[in-house]
């Protein structure tokens, strides 16, 4: 709510008008009625509202990000150490299939990200995937997706804790128990997740992005200098299990869509999301392609995952030491979005989110603490962690990045499909049906591949809560 002594910004009037119009369309679609009063910072009896609407003049204002803040967050979340698993995927598939997958998935995920942005503009109350799922499937769909996304966030956080412990074991030559290194990573991540606003977290994203860019550059140069005479192939013919796992690695590298609604919700101008999306996709596709091609070319079929381990011990330590920024901060961004999902669910429409009170901030701290504690337990308790993460990526990531987007497009355009005559509309309908089918295939084959991987890895895995070196 604006204070009476401030002039009304014309841009804000346009934005509020657009939000109000979109909200009206949504509620007409559900046979609801709303009054003509301004949206206050309380839950309207008529239906859902933008959780950050009407926060002008409050103590904590969330919708403060510019598009470049959002782009930095998206880059920091998406381009983390996963980029260094792509050379090993290309070593399994070969140059041609690897390049086709990296470029093709880059284009495809740009389109699915654009669908998410348009869906959010049509329904401004959406803050996360569970809000969007409620529009498609009702209350039961909301609860299922809420549980799925929280589980996915927790396991991704656990993966970052585990990677932190691998980094520490590399830097110190396993000078301490791995459980202790995991604890240090969890505590550091918890401290950095204490801010409630994404704009503040975006400044950490700058450090994360610089960290992974420099680590990748060091690795590429070092492998180019140190690598033996390698053998690289244009096309390889791997077994189905290996090929599926390699393809899932590339798909997972583009799997940041789960957080896109939350990022767009805290943009001062939600329509600027497209700028941030294009910046992300051009950046990550370029870096993924260059990294995978160059490292595979010089390291050959023996390239390790992450590729940092393919260099000498000294260079690996230097690169891992620089990569600490992305190892920690990328996990912090994931944790923030996951915690915000619960926080908004608890306080949406009450005004608590915009207070600097013991209850509001204390609740945030408790949510973050519990999330990182569970993630730490998961990182230590599951011996075949990477395979389990592949399992979750197949079960949930395929839907969050491809399947649901196809359904969102169908929902937005359903009324026009029966009378569609233009070739463009027919082609888009076919593309989105393809996305849904692709999702189902990825989910089914990915679950099979992950199950086979878990069965094979369990025989050689460390026990739960082991102090052993996990490099």
Q: What's the quick description here?
A:
The protein is mainly α and 471 residues long. Helix content is 70%, strand content 0%.
Structure report:
The protein is built from 15 helices and no strands. Mean pLDDT is 85; it is low at 1-46. The longest helix is centred in the C-terminal third of the chain and has 35 residues, at 313-347. It has helices at residues 10-29, 67-78, 86-93, 95-122, 129-137, 139-172, 178-192, 198-226, 240-253, 260-265, 273-299, 313-347, 358-381, 385-417, 423-457. With 471 residues, the protein is mainly α. The chain crosses the membrane at residues 67-86, 92-116, 144-167, 173-194, 201-225, 245-264, 276-298, 318-337, 358-379, 391-414, 426-450. This is Transmembrane amino acid transporter protein-domain-containing protein. Keywords: Membrane, Transmembrane, Transmembrane helix. Residues 1-15 have a biased composition (Basic and acidic residues).
């Amino acid at each position: 709510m604006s204070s009476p002594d401030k002039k009304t910004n014309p841009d804000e009037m346009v934005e509020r008008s657009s939000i109000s119009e979109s909200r009206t369309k949504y509620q007409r679609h559900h046979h609801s009625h709303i009054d003509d009063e301004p949206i206050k910072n309380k839950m309207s009896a008529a239906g859902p509202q933008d959780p950050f609407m009407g926060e002008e003049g409050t103590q904590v204002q969330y919708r403060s990000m510019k598009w470049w803040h959002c782009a930095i967050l998206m880059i920091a979340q998406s381009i983390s150490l996963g980029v260094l698993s792509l050379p090993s995927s290309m070593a399994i598939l070969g140059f041609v299939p690897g390049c086709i997958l990296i470029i093709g998935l880059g284009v495809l995920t740009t389109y699915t990200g654009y669908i998410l942005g348009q869906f959010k503009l049509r329904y401004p109350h959406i803050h996360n995937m569970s809000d969007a799922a409620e529009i498609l499937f009702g209350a039961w769909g909301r609860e299922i997706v809420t549980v799925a996304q929280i589980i996915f966030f927790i396991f991704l956080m656990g993966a970052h804790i585990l990677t932190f412990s691998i980094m520490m074991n590399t830097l110190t030559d396993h000078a301490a128990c791995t459980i202790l290194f995991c604890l240090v990573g969890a505590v550091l991540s918890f401290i950095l997740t204490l801010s409630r606003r994404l704009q503040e977290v975006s400044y950490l994203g700058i450090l994360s992005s610089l960290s992974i860019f420099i680590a990748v550059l060091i690795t590429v140069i070092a492998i180019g200098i140190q690598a033996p005479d390698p053998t690289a192939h244009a096309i390889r013919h791997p077994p189905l299990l290996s090929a599926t796992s390699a393809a899932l690695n590339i798909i997972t590298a583009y799997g940041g869509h789960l957080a896109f609604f939350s990022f767009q919700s805290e943009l001062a101008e939600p329509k600027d999301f497209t700028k941030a999306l294009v910046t992300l996709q051009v950046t990550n596709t370029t870096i993924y392609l260059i990294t995978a091609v160059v490292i595979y070319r010089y390291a050959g079929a023996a390239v390790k995952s992450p590729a940092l381990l393919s260099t000498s011990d000294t260079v690996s330590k230097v690169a891992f030491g620089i990569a600490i920024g992305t190892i920690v901060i990328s996990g912090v961004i994931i944790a923030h979005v996951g915690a915000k999902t619960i926080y908004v669910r608890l306080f949406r429409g009450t005004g608590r989110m915009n207070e600097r009170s013991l209850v509001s901030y204390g609740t945030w701290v408790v949510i973050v603490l519990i999330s990182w504690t569970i993630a730490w337990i998961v990182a230590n308790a599951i011996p075949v962690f990477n395979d389990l993460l592949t399992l979750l990526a197949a079960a949930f990531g395929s839907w969050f990045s491809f399947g649901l987007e196809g359904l969102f497009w169908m929902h937005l355009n359903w009324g026009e499909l029966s009378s569609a005559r233009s070739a463009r509309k027919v082609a888009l309908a076919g593309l989105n049906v393809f996305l849904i089918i692709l999702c189902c295939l990825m989910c089914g084959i990915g679950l099979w591949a992950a199950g086979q991987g878990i069965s094979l890895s369990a025989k050689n895995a460390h026990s739960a809560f082991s102090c052993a070196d996990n490099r």
